[in-house]
Amino acid sequence: MDTRRNKRKKHKLHKDLKRFSVLLAGFVPFICYLIVLMQGISLIADGKTGLAFVNTESTGLAVRAYAGTDSMLLDRLPKDSQILVTGSAVDGSGAVWYEIKYLRGADTWRTGYVHSSYIVFYNDIAPVGEDPDFEKYLEEQNFPESYKAPLRVLHKEHPTWVFKAQMIDLDWSTALYEESKVGVNMIHPYYAASWRSMEEGAYDWENGRWIELDTGCYGASATITAYFLDPRNGLCDDTRIFQFEDLSYLPDSHSAENTYNIVKGTFLAGEYEFQTVRDDGLYPSYGIVEGSQQEDGTVTYRFSYVDTIMQAAEYAKVSPYHLASRIRQEMGVNGSELAKGTYPGYEGYFNFFNIGAYAHSGRPARENGAIYAKQEGSYLRPWTNPYKAILGGADFVGSSYIQREQNTLYLQKFDVTDGGNGRYSHQYMSNVNAPKDEASSLKKAYTDSGLIDTSVFTFEIPVYQNMPELAAAQPASDDTNATNNNWLSSITVSGGTFESQFSRTQYEYTVNVPADTASVTIAATPCDSGATLLGTGELSLTSDTTQHVITVLAPSFEPRTYTLYIVRSGSIPSTPSAPSETPTPTPTPTPTPTPTPTPTPDPDPVLQSGVYEIGTYITGVEPNTDVATFLGNFSVQNGTIQLMTSSGAAKGSGAVGTGDLLQLYKGNEVMQSYFVVIYGDVNGDGSISLTDMVMIQRQLLQIKILEGPYFTAMDTNHDQSCSLADMVTIQRDLLGIGTVPQR
């Protein structure tokens, strides 16, 4: 029999439902119209998958934990980032979101949801097989699929361009390891802070500032180095591709007419003359001005700059287009003092390529360039006239780089070929993004001269061994002050004793607690107050040894994990008591050309449950299920699990609710994350109440739109839509005449 209290409770519930029914009646006409108009809000997305890229304008694309703008912001992807779309979902407003996978840095794979409006599939622009001959050519060149997709787009835009695969005899991880060493690559301070390295030697931790490794430059981070080193990021458009242009001399392709078009409107479009002793072995005799020969053998030579550049191209085996563009970039439209031979104190000496022109020994750059031109020595020096300076400078470029297997702007920056001088050390520029910047200048020169679609350009595109399936994404840079600081300054565990002293560069700890401890409270302090912490708060100890991961998300969204092994007294730790120290957050690849593969890799973790359904979401959870019961209904092989709240804090007690996140770990790495959905529990408190009915009403009236697992929890009758019928299902549950089915 019902007690008086239960009768009063049921009476109150009937009164509340009656009031709600009256309130709802006023909205019925509008809701009926809404249902006819929308026929429910579909929970099924468009189903598109495949290789794609981000197409935003000025800001990075938000990557979220699930479909919906109210879910946790995980990252921001800049324009042109290459992604793999693996699934899709629809939010409460009917907008389609794509589930994506992408690469950041060396081997950090990330997943999340992005709004579909900002994603473009390569296949929608240039479908596979649209040009069978080009498809066959790509196969012959052995380009990986992640190269083929953007190359199809470029070929469709510029069908005369030639793309060649340059097979690099280096493992990708080895090349990235070497190029990421502190001091090898630089970045100017006006770029985002997320581009700067915070490793030892690049960042002064004691004083909290970056170290100037070169004049006005900081060390480049491993993540931005990976972005610029990855050749696929140079295939995003018809500008960046020019960092791969073959800069060798191709007599059948290069012409004086096109060279003139490059320099048109500059001083290089004109002529020059000089006097010297006649030398038919060096100077073409057709350049002698008629009647200029004197008794001592001195003659006057007159040449056009274009003719001299063509002579230099043949002499040095370097593209005349590259020479013309390089001189134009170095000397400007009107020519500097080094192009005119008028630098004070060094009159009569020329240096068209600014070779040796960098500030040192207390002298400005141009003075040092003039000193180099005056010196006796190689490359036809001293450069006492424009002809010798242009031929000699071209010879310097050719013999120092082009003829040493560094025949592209990319290879002049990233010395990953052995042209007889080793690897990594013979790099023309220190700025990590120099190839992209110079490619832009080169493309502009070609565009201004009208050569882009009238000439045949050949591009040699590096392909490394064992490359990841996607291009490395650029770091988030919307907030230029957001750093990569994802270290902790302290960790505490209530009632626990750490076996080793805390250090920000030590990422695993064993913590001992009393044998009867049921739960602990974990707290941590980030080095950067702008960092986000995941995994702090109360944690239930469900076994004698509990593995727990704290994730630190830097202001730039770069993650780092710290792992705790919490051991009840008297038990044997499941991990060695002496935690390992890891010098960097990223696994360090073996710096050898052919790293030894692991003979027996650790198996991936397997999550199973005989009670719940594990899919996109974890379902089948009854309302008011406590955390311990919930976790006890899973079996895990080769890994561990941890329950988090929707805000990212560890959840060790209380009721499991919609929006809670179950994470599956392999060691310190999150292998998979599953949101919990309890049908009818729309507000995520773990129970079903009138509040949940109101939230469905507000959804239908478009007053408050919910998305992701909360939106799915509204579908109480499992008909793949959100409608009045779902409110009725909850009403019947509350009246005790029905239940909200969880399967």
From TrEMBL:
The keyword Transmembrane is assigned to this record: yes
Alphabetized SUPFAM superfamilies for the sequence: Type I dockerin domain
Gene Ontology terms: biological process: polysaccharide catabolic process
Residues that span the membrane, as ranges: 20-45
GO MF annotations, alphabetized: hydrolase activity, hydrolyzing O-glycosyl compounds
Keywords: Membrane, Transmembrane, Transmembrane helix
Residue spans of biased composition, Pro residues class: 582-604
InterPro entries xrefs: Cadherin-like_domain (IPR025883), Dockerin_1_rpt (IPR002105), Dockerin_dom (IPR016134), Dockerin_dom_sf (IPR036439), EF_Hand_1_Ca_BS (IPR018247)
Region (Disordered): 571-605
Protein name: Cadherin-like beta sandwich domain-containing protein
Domain of life: Bacteria
Pfam families named in the record: Cadherin-like, Dockerin_1
PROSITE patterns: DOCKERIN, EF_HAND_1
Listed CDD domains: Dockerin_I
Span of domain Dockerin: 675-742
Residues forming coiled coils: none
